[in-house]
Amino acid sequence: MSPSAVSPTPVRTKRPGDLAVPKISLAQNVVKENTKRKIIIFSDFDGTIFMQDTGHVLFDSHGCGSKRREILDEQIKSGTRTFKDVSEEMWGSLNVPFDDGFEVMREALEIDPDFDSFHKFCMEQNIPFNVISAGLKPILRKILDEFLGEKQSSNIEIVANDAQISPDGSEWKPIWRHESELGHDKAASIQEYRDSAKLESEDGTIPMIIFVGDGVSDLPAAREADLLFARKGLRLEEYCLEHKLPYIAFETFADIQKEVQNIMKEDEQKTGGHGKPVRFNPRANMWRRLSSRYAVPLYVTATPKEEKMLLWPETFSHFEPREEITV
Questions:
Q1: Residue 44 among the catalytic residues
Q2: Residue 47: phi, psi to the nearest 5?
Q3: Are strands 172-175 and 156-165 parallel, antiparallel or unpaired?
Q4: Strands 172-175 and 208-213, how do they pair?
Q5: Average pLDDT, integer, range 300-307
Q6: What are phi and psi of 259, to 5 degrees?
Q7: Residue 112 three-state SS
Q8: What per-residue string of b and e applies to 215-247 under the rule 16 or more CB within 10 Å gives b?
Q9: Which band of pLDDT confidence, cut at 50, 70 and 90, is reported for residue 65?
Q10: For the chain, what is the radius of gyration of the CA atoms?
């Protein structure tokens, strides 16, 4: 997606199924797994947790329109304009009060049918679930509050941009997280998350890193995670097939829950939760470090140009990978 908005007033309207999370009986819904392994999940938002792109819904309905947006998207891909420049035009084209714009998104967005139950499973298993997005944090938070309830939503960490929005909605001004041409340095954002997780589990074991995504912009995580879930039939799965990257296809988060439960059991049986995870990927050490209290700032400077583009596509949007590049 792109930039962001000021923290809006919480949505008061409630719909059936969107109420605060009820307490879950482990006996009824979730079998507690006897694993010592710490698992950390990172997930994309647009196209992964929700089927649509939140920014596109707004721009098409109350901003530049779909045709202009497609032209602007191409300008980013071709490198003729920076991500930050194009994003400011997109957000600046909006002319709608925040709450009215949110109502449009609320009606247009469709959440993965099994995400709610999957996230409850994560909470019961003490598995941190984190959203890392180039989108608008206040919008993403309000969407999660609306679809999951504020109590459950508060258990999801979100890293995104902020913005100033005038009361009448005539001005949407992004407040960028960083000073780069991009406004949002993805690597730096992950580093900022480090305080909410540890490099190792409480008992000294190595965490298992899982990533869930749908598009080419998720390639950094696809290449760095111990375990990758790619939404079936979309670009990330196509890329994994083309470049022989290991992944597990999913249609809904129910598929992910089944696989995670199986992997937890497999890891417990084969490793007892000690040492390396059973699905260990050495490249996932970047995520282990960046989700720990001890980030490694030098990682960026030590990364080849091609990998910088994949790891931080917004910053290095001028670079276009060719088919012959192997992963």
A1: yes
A2: 85, -5
A3: antiparallel
A4: unpaired
A5: 39
A6: -65, -40
A7: coil
A8: bebbbbbbbbbbbbbbbeebbbbebbeeeebeb
A9: very high
A10: 20
Q: How far apart are alpha carbons 154 and 142 in whole angstroms? A: 11
- For 182-235, write each residue's pLDDT tens digit: 665 554 554 454 444 444 445 556 788 888 988 766 676 667 778 899 999 988
> Encoding tokens for residue 280?
């260990």
- Quote the CA–CA distance of 35 and 22 in Å, as a whole number: 25
Catalytic residue (choose from 18, 44, 168, 195): 44
Instruction: Give the separation between CA 320 and CA 306, rounded to whole angstroms.
Output: 9
Give, in order, the Cα–Cα distances in Å from 14 to each of 19, 89, 316: 7, 33, 41
Q: CA separation (Å) from 297 to 73, 176, 206, 277, 284?
A: 30, 20, 21, 25, 16
Among candidate residues 94, 73, 100, the one with its CA nearest the CA of residue 4: 94
The two tokens of residue 313 are 């596509």
- The count of residues in the chain is 327
266 in the Ramachandran plot: left (φ > 0), alpha (ψ -120 to 50) or beta?
alpha
Neighbours of 104 (CB within 10 A): 15
Single out the catalytic residue among 18, 46, 195, 255. Answer: 46
Gap between the Cα atoms of 1 and 178, Å rounded: 16
Q: Which two tokens stand for residue 243?
A: 């470049």
The two three-digit tokens of residue 317, written as one number: 């949007």
How many CB atoms within 10 Å of residue 183? 24
Distance, CA of 103 to CA of 284 (rounded, Å) = 39
Structure-token pair, residue 25: 């009986």
